[in-house]
Specification:
It contains 5 helices and no strands. With about 100 residues, it is mainly alpha-helical.
Length: about 100
């Protein structure tokens, strides 16, 4: 794996989350206890949410696992790795979820 997570983060995420996870347009990732939930992290990268665009159509499960593992292990975070299998499960769950109903008129 090497620096795959760092390289992918810098190419895809740092513009909004900062080079050191300090935040900016996107939320701060440094010292972020919300990153303890590996499934949530993977789902956020795959499907986006809030102001974050989805990256599931641009990145493979391995690339998403590398990014998620990188952000969960740096900048004061000490959470475990995210596996390709966990990412694949979140991708499948998102694909199986019913679309949100349109807002009422």
């Amino acid at each position: 794996q090497g620096n795959a997570g760092a390289d992918l983060f810098n190419a895809n995420c740092a513009g909004c989350h900062g080079n050191a996870g300090e935040g900016g347009v996107g939320p701060t990732l440094a010292n972020n206890q919300g990153l303890d939930d590996a499934n949530h992290v993977a789902l956020q990268i795959i499907g986006g949410g809030g102001d974050m665009p989805p990256f599931g159509d641009q990145l493979t499960d391995q690339q998403i696992a590398d990014i998620a593992t990188y952000i969960r292990a740096n900048w004061g975070n000490a959470f475990g790795p995210v596996t390709v299998e966990e990412v694949a499960a979140q991708r499948a769950a998102l694909a199986a979820a019913p679309a949100a109903p349109p807002p009422p008129p």
